[in-house]
UniProtKB/TrEMBL annotation:
Belongs to the methyltransferase superfamily. METL family. It comes from Canna indica. This is tRNA N(3)-methylcytidine methyltransferase. It holds the Pfam family Methyltransf_23. CDD domains: AdoMet_MTases (cd02440).
Length: 318
């Protein structure tokens, strides 16, 4: 049943180019397309986005919005078929909706999950611990990190990689967000074996759009650094002209394709060209990049909604 649901979920219900023409020819939506002139006010507004997300997760700490993303295994089959044992780093894990299906997929998969909110990490651990089936929580390692500000902690890199990589890493003594006792050192890091990066996969699932645009390149470069050569970053996020973008009011714009909600949280909507420039500019090789266009139906009102997401798969050069 899950496989059938995933197949239906990912069908191309409409053409993005047709939606583009409809939006761009609608005078009432024209403000989304006009150039954005930044101001000191809009620039200052980007400084507290992590606090806004922490407040959001505190308000929804019961996991009310949890919905397991089983479709990811169909979109990214490498998570199932790559080797006997893999290590996955989920960046901005939220309440664990991505973590749980990845852990279920293979009993040998280890997941490292970070988020800027300790509250939401607690929710993730609770959801995983109470999930039906085999024990999953012993393969989940969580840590607090705002990647838009800080780098990954040293323990994701072996000693050799720490010395040889060109980036600076946050040690446990330097990171104000890292919680002692909440981390289990990755079993694959040893003094005599170079991890050459760290993990086999990095997943960025509806995370990058929550970061101010001017910080995205830095975040992607950090993700490249923590990957082993030849391994993959798996990306899924909001696409240009998604229904939620078109609902934002003119005064909520804080950049081109970038908006701020009333609670202070950000949302960016990616074109394929923007996503391509960001990832290839950071050093990734593009393998897959496309719009996923889905028509969903509100069960209560019966209203059809046109959703647009960007699906991407990128590889670290060997």
């Amino acid at each position: 049943m899950a496989e059938e649901t995933a197949a239906e979920y990912h069908s191309k219900d409409f053409e993005w180019e047709e939606l583009r023409l409809e939006v761009e020819n609608d005078p009432s939506l024209r403000y989304h397309l006009t150039p954005f002139i930044s101001s000191a006010c809009s620039s200052d507004a980007t400084t507290d986005e992590a606090d806004a997300w922490r407040s959001f997760h505190r308000r929804h700490s019961a996991g009310k919005f949890f919905k397991e993303r089983r479709y990811l295994l169909k979109e990214f089959p490498e998570l199932i078929h790559s080797g006997d044992s893999i290590q996955v780093l989920e960046v901005g894990c939220g309440n664990g909706s991505t973590v749980l299906p990845i852990l279920r997929a293979k009993q040998s998969t280890i997941v490292y999950a970070c988020d800027c909110s300790e509250e939401v990490l607690k929710t993730t651990r609770e959801i995983v611990a109470t999930a039906s089936g085999a024990s999953l929580d012993n393969r989940l390692h969580t840590f607090v990190l705002d990647l838009s500000v800080y780098n990954f902690p040293d323990w994701l890199f072996c000693a050799s990689c720490q010395r040889n990589s060109g980036s600076k890493h946050v040690s446990s003594s330097d990171s104000r967000d890292e919680k002692a006792g909440k981390l289990n050192a990755p079993y694959f890091l040893t003094e005599d074996q170079c991890c050459i990066g760290g993990v086999d996969f990095v997943t960025l699932i509806f995370t990058l759009s929550a970061i101010p645009f001017h910080r995205m390149s830095s975040v992607i470069e950090k993700c490249l650094c923590v990957l082993k050569p030849g391994q993959f970053l798996l990306f899924r996020d909001y696409g240009l002209y998604d229904m939620t973008m078109l609902r934002f009011l003119p005064e909520q714009r804080v950049g081109f394709c970038e908006y701020m909600r009333s609670d202070g949280t950000f949302s960016y909507f990616f074109s394929l060209d923007t996503a391509r420039d960001l990832f290839t500019g950071a050093g990734f090789i593009e393998l897959e990049l496309e719009y996923c266009c889905i028509t969903s139906v509100n069960r209560r009102s019966g209203k059809k909604m046109q959703r647009v997401w960007v699906h991407g798969k990128f590889q670290k050069p060997v």
